[in-house]
Design brief:
This protein has 36 helices and twelve strands. It is an alpha+beta fold. It has a five-stranded antiparallel beta sheet. Bound molecules: adenosine-5'-triphosphate. InterPro entries: Kinase-like_dom_sf (IPR011009), PAN3 (IPR030844), Pan3_CK (IPR041332), Prot_kinase_dom (IPR000719), Znf_CCCH (IPR000571).
């Protein structure tokens, strides 16, 4: 690779390795799963990098010595050769390019022009060979011969490049016809499974074709091919490229790009026969850490389509009852799996698709976790291409709301002189109003946010200044309020008196609802008149639906309160808080029970008064006037004009005297109706149904949002794992620990070890640069890669080392295994040190 070549190029949309100019790469490297964009042709040296691979010097010299013979074709990585054959259509005996193929060698074009090469070599503009490869080649006479041979073929490589360009630029035709397939040497053919069978399921030339067509015979050969995986011996392009006789490369060089992009064909027989070298069985039996029991494989052969048409699977899926799943899951888990130590990051085997559908034949694969699958209602109806990054995450409004709440909860006063009270510390005053209103409780009152040292939770403390407790039973009356657990009432936890403020104060401890405001602040706040270009600002008219929402919520609160033999006593705008959009809660219940204990009226009277106060509240809010109830005629006229008769009728019922002649829902019904909360609820039943329905919709939307966040948290967990593993300094072999002779785990973490792939993968995901060397910050690419890693797909990616000298082809599946086993190693190491 020439200096300045982008190390990690922005991938095509499908995140497949760029085949670029090297049809070579398209054919010899694992076949990309989707077409590569033409953009990669702007990176002429990307293909050069594909020719190199990780190679130890020992492997290198081995390859070098063997490359001196023309019969040394099999010394190329046999697994890579197998892959090449699988992905490259061929037509033995009918190859118009056959005569030329001995000249063309993709590995030559990849390998020539090392940093040690001469200037004349550089003139050929052939991509450089990895430095370490060239050096080891020159270190022995055989290697030197190889290098010489390589140089002599450099020109041929350039020719090859031109020939390839011609192929690309030529008229589109049947890609299969353009496939070069020179007859192999007898030994090679004996050892090679015909790729026509692999690709098309059969070979039309079976009678004359020299390759093996019976897969069972393949395994009997002495030179049984190894599968290509990350543990396979590396391929060194230098030696291969110096050998001009490497016809297999030539063959692949003539492959049409169409052929390279052909879909993988998996013959039916391969799905069932275990002995058949199917795509699945090509995975190494021992790779990464096979002891990983709880790792659920992603089997691409069993795609979503297969699952959907599998009647067994469908039956299982249909009979699956999510509401009884937990017991089923635990049964499955206990019977089928060894339960190990709890690992928060470990994949839960009981939640995998295989566990749910364990009896479904062929339903082995885990769900396609890499798909963002829409759940719940789709409020926007946008098409896939219209969606943006926002669609992956929580909506801005919800995020902002939650973040504000979190921020306000964390607020502390820097120079606070407010003392801690009992177990409550870090008191922060929420009462910002300069005017203190004594009329409500008869005492000046303050509201503080505080943290309890008992449970670490936040609470709101309401303090009534200079309160003198004359009767012990008064404060005990707050006990009854602890039992009121209603969504429209701020829950009371305790009440006590204190002298911590220097006076005798009554403290009522309630739930804290961050970023809430009172209905008085919401609807009656004095705001300066705003004018926009001479027009008055939009009116503060409160929509009727909001008013019905308030009515229903407070009615629900009153039902709970009255049902417990209590009365709210205080239903006024400043003592009702708005905790989120249209969500209100009664906030000062129980206080008057303590403060006015001796002067309390009979309960039915107080309960009737609650309804009256509710009627006045709605009347005032609807009129936008805190004292609207003082002029009933005028206020009701406004209601008549601005709202429906139904609302007017409801308000009238609430504010009317105790004995009414009709229920609010049936004004024409004669007779006296007892005025209580049950009658009222019956009267507004239709509105309750409407409000209930809109609440259900809101809940669905939130669940949908939560589901999306679940995806994000899955990605976050994956990233956490990756970062736990990547570049751990204490496990990096390049950083020698002085005095340490023990063969530590460092070798596992060295640049030649398994974890190296994870490091390169991190670069591939996050440190990509474009053809101009500019950083690529593509969220879709990151999500795409991480989701595929999580799913462990078979798709392969090309990882380039930081020195741009090595290229690794590795599948997400292998990366996932590597990540899982590395992380498990870490956990084990942590446990050992803890012993
Ligand atoms: N439980 C609570 N959780 C969070 N914030 C609260 C809670 N109770 C009250 N607040 C906030 O504290 C502030 C003061 O509340 P308070 O009930 O004293 O209202 P106020 O407008 O000061 O009424 P008044 O002056 O008539 O007593 C309001 O902004 C309110 O939103």
């Amino acid at each position: 690779m020439l200096p300045g070549t982008p190390r990690h190029h922005a991938p095509p949309p499908s995140s497949t390795p760029p085949p670029t100019k090297a049809a070579t790469a398209a054919a010899d490297l694992p076949r990309p799963s989707s077409p590569s964009p033409p953009a990669h042709r702007q990176q002429p040296h990307a293909s050069a990098s594909t020719g190199s691979d990780t190679t130890t010097s020992a492997e290198l010299s081995e390859l070098t010595s063997s490359s001196s013979s023309r019969d040394s074709i099999p010394t190329l990585d046999p697994a890579a050769e197998l892959r090449r054959r699988e992905t490259t259509p061929q037509k033995p005996g009918k190859n118009p390019r056959r005569a030329k193929t001995h000249k063309t060698n993709k590995w030559t074009s990849n390998g020539a022009g090392s940093s040690d090469s001469t200037g004349s070599e550089r003139k050929t503009s052939v991509p450089q060979v990895p430095r370490h490869t060239a050096q080891s080649a020159a270190s022995s006479p055989q290697s030197a011969r190889s290098l010489q041979r390589q140089q002599s073929h450099t020109h041929a490589a350039v020719q090859q490049g031109r020939a390839m360009a011609t192929t690309y630029g030529g008229p589109a035709g049947d890609s299969r016809r353009g496939v070069a397939s020179p007859r192999p040497k007898g030994r090679e053919a004996k050892n090679t499974f015909c790729r026509n069978v692999t690709i098309y399921g059969h070979c039309r030339y079976e009678n004359t074709c020299p390759y093996i067509h019976d897969s069972t015979k393949l395994g009997q050969n002495e030179n049984k091919m190894k599968r290509f995986n990350v543990d396979s011996p590396s391929f060194t392009p230098l030696q291969a490229s110096t050998n001009g006789a490497l016809t297999p490369s030539s063959r692949s060089a003539a492959i049409s790009p169409k052929a390279a992009n052909a879909a993988i064909f998996t013959p039916k027989s391969q799905r069932s026969a275990a002995s058949t070298p199917s795509l699945q069985t090509k995975e190494p039996a021992v790779e990464w850490h096979p002891q990983q029991q709880d790792f659920t494989e992603f089997v691409p052969g069993q795609t979503f389509d297969n699952q959907m048409v599998d009647p067994n699977a469908q039956a299982q899926a249909l009979s699956y009852d999510p509401f009884t799943a937990s017991s089923a899951i635990s049964a499955i888990t206990s019977s089928g799996h060894q339960t190990g130590a709890i690992n928060p990051y470990a994949q839960d085997p009981s939640l995998s698709g295989a566990s749910y559908f364990q009896n479904a034949g062929g339903f082995q694969s885990s769900p396609a976790y890499h798909l963002y699958w829409p759940v719940g209602p789709q409020p926007t109806g946008l098409l896939a291409y219209q969606r943006t990054a926002h669609d992956f995450f929580i909506p801005d409004s919800v995020r902002e709301d939650l973040q504000k709440k979190a921020e306000i909860s964390r607020q502390v006063a820097s120079n606070s002189s407010i003392p801690p009270i009992e177990q409550f510390h870090s008191l922060f005053c929420l009462d910002t109003s300069p005017q203190k209103n004594q009329s409500i409780f008869g005492y000046t009152n303050w509201v503080y946010k505080a943290v309890s040292s008992k449970d670490g939770n936040m609470y709101a403390l309401r303090r009534l200044e200079n309160f003198r407790l004359t009767n012990e039973t008064a404060i005990r009356s707050a006990q009854a309020w602890k039992r009121i657990l209603n969504g429209s009432v701020v829950t009371i936890h305790e009440a006590f008196t204190t002298r911590a403020f220097g006076d005798s104060s009554l403290i009522i401890v309630t739930d804290y609802h961050p970023n809430s405001k009172t209905l008085a602040e919401e609807h009656f706040k004095q705001v300066p008149m705003q004018r926009y270009h001479g027009r008055q600002a939009a009116s503060s008219h409160v929509p009727e639906q909001v008013l019905w929402g308030y009515l229903v919520q407070i009615a629900s609160a009153l039902k709970a309160i009255h049902g417990s033999g209590l009365a709210a006593r205080l239903i006024t705008p400043s003592k009702i808080i708005l905790t989120s959009k249209n969500r209100i809660r009664l906030n000062a219940c129980g206080i008057l029970d303590v403060v006015q204990h001796e002067t309390a009226r009979p309960l039915p009277e107080m309960q009737a008064d609650d309804l009256l106060q509710l009627g006045r509240l709605i009347l005032c809010i609807a009129n936008g006037n805190l004292s609207a109830h003082l002029n009933m005629q005028k206020s009701m006229d406004y209601i008549t004009r601005s709202y429906t008769a139904r609302l007017k009728e409801c308000i009238q019922w609430l504010v009317s005297p105790q004995a009414s002649t009709s229920a609010p829902s049936s004004p024409t019904t004669p007779g006296t109706v007892h005025k209580d909360i049950d009658t009222f609820l019956g009267g507004i039943a239709d509105q309750m149904a409407t409000v209930f329905d809109s609440e259900l919709h809101a809940q669905d939307t939130l669940t949908n949002t939560l589901a999306r966040e679940l995806e994000s948290s899955r990605i976050a967990r994956l990233l956490i794992k990756l970062n736990f593993v990547n570049e751990r300094p204490e496990l990096d072999a390049s950083q020698h620990v002085p005095g340490s002779t023990a063969p530590t785990a460092s070798s596992l973490w060295a640049e030649t070890g398994d974890r190296y792939y994870l490091k390169l993968f991190r670069d591939y995901v996050f440190h990509q640069v474009d053809a101009n060397g500019h950083p690529v910050t593509n969220l879709a690419h990151v999500l795409d890669c991480l989701n595929k890693l999580d799913a462990g797909t078979e798709e392969k990616i090309m990882l380039v080392s930081r020195d741009e000298q090595n290229v690794l082809i590795v599948s997400y599946r292998e990366l996932k295994r590597g990540l899982e086993s590395s992380f498990q190693d870490l956990i084990r190491a942590g446990r050992q040190s803890g012993k």
